[in-house]
Amino acid sequence: MLCYQNVSVAYGDGAPALSGFNLEVKAGEIVALVGESGSGKTTAIRSAIGLLPGGGKVIQGDILFQGLSLLQLSGEEWRNLRGQRISMIFQDSGAMLNPIRTIGSQFVEYIRTHRPMAKKEAWEMGRVMLERMGLPHSGDIMKSYPFQLSGGMRQRAGIAMAMVFEPKLLLADEPTSALDVTTQAQIVRQMLELRQQYGTSILLVTHNLGVAAYMADRILVMTGGRVVESGCREEILQQAKDDYTRRLLEAVPDMRRKRYV
What we know:
The chain is α/β, with parallel strands linked by helices. The protein has eleven helices and twelve strands.
């Protein structure tokens, strides 16, 4: 599905923010990238959708999606790929929405950018997707502005936009960050349902080991722009070999001497 081949990324003339990164995400698989801030997690997933900020550039290696090199795509090819076959959920979907436009107007524009259809048809397509994301009164939400929705509702609206075309690959950058624990649980369950309903592969960036332990089939631990340990969920959580991984696990708060990862 998605394959990183010895990928290195640098910003300007600085040292690589990501070095020698290798990963293969299989169809229907959930892979989590965990590690401290600045470890290269977000750089890794943004490089797969051509959205590296600040002049970031892949300086080594290749990234393949279904056998196609993403680094060789033209602007038109990227527009046809993004949103339909590959989508991304950003850390704060509320910040990605235009505050002076309704959810519906933005959703309709997004749909019609990728697929020619009448506005009324696109509106109904967006409304139905909001309902699938567990948002009741979807017609009212389509008419609402982002500031009129809670953080969890905005995040679910962002997920709805990302999933409206049933993409084969979903890139999720801290999708539960800054949300209360109840809303976090709802978002996690909905993402797992997306995998079950559509067979979507998910590449998840998170600093929350609890989320990674619950969702992921495989976990990659990163620090300093490199992968220091990778394996299936049970191997990482119960048989960690690297000192950094063990320190991450030890940092997880416990409750009555029980650690929930």
